[in-house]
Amino acid sequence: MRFGVVPELLEFDRHAILAGEIWRLWTCHLVHYSTRHALIDLATAAAACSVALPVLGWRRLCLAVALTAPLIAGGLLLLAPDLIYYRGASGMAVMLVVLAACTLWRQAGIRARTALALLGVALAVKIGAEALGYTTGWSDLPADVHVAWQAHLLGVSSAALTIKILAVR
């Protein structure tokens, strides 16, 4: 199911990107398949940003978002050759959640670190389940759209790279 002209100009469209429309590597994270889909991604990203912002500051947080957006979309080009279209910010939201967790890790006590580690395991199980085809249906995706679990995995990888590049402590 497809919605409107503007989202189609911004979405991840494999053929359009390979034909030179590289802005889609950034803009595909701005368009979604439904309002619920957008709200879930936005709420997750906003919560994670509120945790990471005091440690990273606006400049480094914005830099992380600007640099990882094309990494995630570019990764989809390489790792998901059957993925023709993609819309959503869940990969970015996962990157921000992992980034937020890493900012908390250094100042956390043993109980908080245990909770963060369990959240990491839960995220790994979620991504694994999505890779096997299990989804919750919370995001209200159209019937012909499947969860791009690779975007979530790339979000984790992008967070690790961001932590290294930005020297997050």
UniProtKB/TrEMBL annotation:
Pfam families: Rhomboid. Keywords: Hydrolase, Membrane, Transmembrane, Transmembrane helix. It comes from Duganella dendranthematis. GO terms for molecular function: hydrolase activity. It is found in: Membrane. The keyword Signal does not apply. Residues 20-166 form the Peptidase S54 rhomboid domain. This is Rhombosortase. InterPro entries: Peptidase_S54_rhomboid_dom (IPR022764), Rhom-like_SP_proteobac (IPR023826), Rhomboid-like_sf (IPR035952). SUPFAM superfamilies: Rhomboid-like (SSF144091). Its EC number is 3.4.21.-.
